[in-house]
Request: fold
Amino acid sequence: MGGIEALVGRGRELAAFDALLRHLDQTRTGAAVWVEGDAGMGKSAVATALATLATRSGLPVRIKSLGSDEVPLAALAELSGCRLGQFGSVAEAVDRLGAALAAVCAEGPVVLVADDLHLAEESSLLAWSQLSKMARRLPVLLVSTCSLRPYRERLSQLRESVHDHGGEILSLRPLQDAELVTLAEHHLGRAPGPRLVRYLKALQGNPGAAVGMLSGLDFLGLLSRTGKRVELSGSAADSAAILAAHACRGLSAAERAVVREAALAPARFDAADVAHAGGLALPTVAAALSSATHLGILRTEGDRLVFRHEVLRDACVRALSAPQRRTSHQAAVARLLADGARPLTVAHHVRAAGELSPDAVEWRAGLTESTLLDDPALFSGVLHMAPADPRSAITDYWQGDYEAVVRTATEWDGDSRVEDGKLTRLAIRALIRTERPDDALVLSAGSGDPHIRAWRALALVAAGATAAARADIEEIAVDQGDDSAVAALAHALVRTGRGVRVQPDIVAVRDALADTAEGRELRALLHCDLLELLPQIGPPAAVPGVLGETPAILAVADSGLLDRIQAAASWAAYAIGQWDAASALDPRVAATVAARRAQRPSQRAVHTALRTHWEPLAIQAETDGHLEEALDLRRRALAEALGRPPSRLYGAEHVVRLCRATGGDADSIVEDCQRVADDELLPVQIAMAALVRAVVERDAAGLTAAASRLSEHGAIAQQAFALEEAAVCLAEAGDRRAAGRALQQAVQVYACVGAAWDVARADARLQQHRIRRRTPADQPASGWAALTPAEFRVVRLVARGLSNRAIAEELFLSQNTVQTHLARIRDKLGLRSRLDIARAAGFRADAGRDPVKPRGGSEPSA
Reply:
């Protein structure tokens, strides 16, 4: 590669040089130019390009490397055309150099380039400082190239001097990945293939390292050319060694050794990890890692370091032979155990060593269960090493290898070294997870351990024997000091439809659990129970607090529970009207929300919903006029909900509505809902049973009462539907005015969650009775009827006492948007403060779930 045209990624620098040359030629005033960059960034190439530009412009150029001085100031003397000879002091020599430079410039503009200034001795740096100050008074472009590593105070001062005297500072940045690819294409004559591109990216944008690596690979025959591509071939170890050598070319030999040691450390490490494992001095390691971070080989991640590119880490590891690596890891284990290092660091080296020393066996035996769960995959490898450790079942379970859990429990059954019943409980849980409840029942048969019996009850629930599970639970006498047993029993009560008995105690039971594998699982399960119970029991104001705890629960839950926790949190948010938050948690709910808002859902949401969620499909079917299909889909969804206590009757209202529209059997739905409500006794279930009965019986008063009860528990969508259905009933009875008011209230509540599809359906149903609510065209400019759905949502939250910031977070708006809404609300209602808005809204004091209704004023009319 050669010539200005092939200097990839340096267009900005070349443009700056071109401007300086034109300025020099036109004004006969010069400048000092400081070009800096790490080793390999192309400082000399840029200087050569400048010389070429100057020559093309007809300017004389002199270029000299200051690193070649054998006699102090000799290179500068040659550059300035000075016959230095003998001199008594550096000051005298500097004066002579200045005079020589002035004489050269008297003949016309000139370009002088001092390459590798960082290699110059102190007297040359002093002289260059004085010459650079003269540059602005002479027709000379005085260019120096310099690396600031390793640090020299004199160089730093000289750089500041150039800047302070109006000089130009050009810092050569690393090339972008695409620029490195272009550089490789210029160098090799063909485009690099994917594997070679990964190698190039690991060089941190260093063009010199890239050219050196490519030349080395090519020289050793490790590149193959096929068609228009060139790709890595041959020995992977040889290729890796070349990559490691060139990626670390800016480091000293000692620093490269530290980086290789770091490559043997865990993926996330610090200087102490590397120093302890390698038996190295901590200051030396810290300095080397700092240098590697400066060069982009490493990067910080929190309080730890990581390799920026895994391919470079792998290359550094491969630079050592397999026996060398094994010996290094074994030595690291011995040092780390002696130093009492972090278990994660020790475990990494133990697993990499491939065997356990006697000291490591003793260390492994002392690991706590919570430590094993810090990295189950890592510790699983250690626990499976000989001699066998039955606690491997814990890490296997956490990783979802349930078959291995059952095998381990069988092999170690009755062993005196294993806590009585622990592996049995673990195996029962594994069998329940793998949908083998019958096997779990066989394994737990005849046990008198209340802890095992609580899990057995859950196996009975999974087997569909809820009545038998309830009978078993009534006979279990749990020691209240056994937190895990108490928690397992509480969870079993919820899953057998007896959640109303334990809901007040679930938080205390959950938070008392120890940090063990079973404790973390039960904590997650009880959290899901809370999320499913609170929207149905209340108060609704408690739900956001539990939702806020979800990220912490997810952070320590095993992979098999993550989807379940997110689904429970999403449903809870959806149930109380926080549809945006619900959509963010679960794509299935996001598809439902999008459908109810008459929006196009994301492709991911659609794909997920098609496999597991019926409601958005039912909405689409109904929109397309396929009511029978919509009814079938909603029946399926309701049947699934009824079969899993705590049963959710949400959606039953649409089943009975569609039954009435298609001539289906609505009475059986009413009976099912009433049976569930009588059995589980959850307040929302009771309200929903009353709602569907009132729909079938066309009882407008019953529907209004159901709306009020549902409002108390935050069931916004169901409350709105009850008002919609009441409007239809009133219209059927000929009470048009009351029907219009009920419709207006229903629409206002639907608007709080943006349920445009429901609003359109309600409008269409009432239009059949020639009842039409106000539209934007005839909506008044003031009063409650003038508020938009978005403004109604803000009013509801103001009435609940939320600050602007909290409202913004709740509605996913900016605080400026909230302030704009409040200003418009005050104007339309003729009010002066947010307190006036809250008072006028007339919300209930508990959670503000009633329709917007001003006190002492008329309701919005249809």
Remarks:
- The chain is about 65% helix and 5% strand.
- The mean pLDDT is 88.
- The first strand starts at residue 31 and ends at 36.
